[in-house]
Design goal:
Blueprint lengths: L1 H19 L2 H17 L1 H8 L5 H12 L5 H12 L6 H15 L2 E8 L5 H14 L4 E8 L7 E5 L2 E4 L2 H13 L5
Parallel strand pairs: 1-2
Antiparallel strand pairs: 1-3, 3-4
Helix pairs in contact: 1-5, 1-6, 2-6, 4-5
């Protein structure tokens, strides 16, 4: 059910923003609202509280976002609140931003390495990913995982390229454990 709600509202916002020619602007605003929503526990507690009426919730959102966010985004948030779907806002935003990425042929790549990568190495990785995939752009996310020992692991969607020393050692270990000595 939650997936259907996020798809329905996310698709509606996507189509509206696309029709108005403001897709990227709306995506930026919704991403920022998602951050605000996740980072501001007091706001979410009030908006999700069952004793706060829909009208009060709408007024709170209008007070916060009118003049700071576009009319499209503010109106969308009001609609979500009026329909009692505030608890799904994060999922709606995630679905919407993913739909915008797909439309713009952008993917998200997660790169884990054993040590911090230099800026030039990061540029090389992104350039290579653009060469070997069908995407026009990547949103790159880097992290350090010393347990990899060396090398790196790259995840794009459900695809994983594991070139870490840890993986190579595990593969070698499994191969050696299958050898019988007489």
């Amino acid at each position: 059910m939650a997936k259907l709600v996020s798809k329905t509202y996310g698709d509606a916002l996507f189509e509206l923003a696309l029709e108005k020619g403001i897709l990227d602007d709306v995506c930026e605003e919704m991403t920022e609202i998602g951050r605000i929503w996740k980072d501001n526990k007091e706001l979410t507690d009030v908006i999700l509280h069952p004793r706060v009426t829909a009208e009060e919730k709408v007024q709170i959102i209008r007070n916060i976002f009118e003049g700071r966010a576009s009319e499209t985004v503010t109106g969308f948030l009001v609609t979500v609140l009026e329909k009692g779907r505030a608890s799904e806002l994060v999922n709606i935003i995630e679905y919407f931003t993913e739909r915008v990425r797909e439309y713009n042929n952008i993917s998200v790549a997660y790169v884990s390495s054993a040590t911090e990568l230099s800026d030039s190495k990061k540029e090389q990785i992104e350039k290579r990913l653009l060469e070997v995939t069908e995407y026009d752009k990547f949103e790159m996310n880097y992290s350090v995982d010393p347990e990899l020992i060396g090398g790196m692991v790259i995840r794009i969607g459900d695809r994983v390229l594991d070139g870490s020393i840890k993986q190579k050692l595990n593969t070698m270990s499994r191969s050696l454990s299958g050898i019988r000595l007489n």
